[in-house]
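Notes from the 1:1 (GR / supervisor)

We went over the backlog. Supervisor wanted to see one worked example end to end before approving the batch request, so GR pasted a single chain during the call. The sequence is below; no edits were made to it. Supervisor asked that the structure be written out right there so they could see what the output format looks like.
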Amino acid sequence: MPQERKRNSQDLANFLGDRSNSSPDWQTQLAVVARRFNQEYRRESFDLPPEVEAMPIFREWASGSLAAKIASPFWEIAQPRKQQRCLDIGCGVSFLIYPWRDWEAFFYGQEISEVARDTLNARGPQLNSKLFKGVQLGGAHRLSYEENQFDLAIATGFSCYYPLDYWSTVLSEAKRVLKPEGLFVFDAIDPDSAIAENWAILETYLGAEVFLESLTAWQKMIQSAGAKIVKQQPGELFQLYKVRFS
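Structure output shown during the call:
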């Protein structure tokens, strides 16, 4: 285990080391978010104050029911189709929990958590070696894939950890790797949702600050990035967007 953690730490250092395309502030946040999710994927305990553990949203998180409640069902507005090349950015363990085999779409991933990356790269080929094409380690602002490679890109569940200027770069990268008619599906936290404030408090104590930007600000950023909103869908916490680039 110590040797594995040493290797994972070096992997993280390698992808954080090249800062030519990102600001130091982004790198700090990337490292913070990576640590927060590595800790959760390893099922390590979080040291939280009693008043946070007394919050109903913490009890939902601890029981595992919160994840299903706030997950964004991207397939409802852009279901991967047979033999499409799909990139799941910030994929976590998506290939293990969503029906990629039923969709028969080729799965490529990029993930900031070394633990999730290693888990998928170990178990994905066992689940379906034809569809699973591997997961790269890295942030969403610098994708490790070629131009015009994908029919669909997905990025859900993590936009709230970064400022809008970071996400403007993410959209540029998504545009670069998508085919001309490709679609990008991602979500943004709705700060007016009933659980947004308490969820942000919980996430802060779990180790990652949350940015509560208005949906109006998100839509302006999407437009300025040269993307057109094709469809949107509200959720318990996140608003889903499907966009196409002009």
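Supervisor's comment: Confidence is low (pLDDT under 50) at residues 1-22.
Batch request approved.
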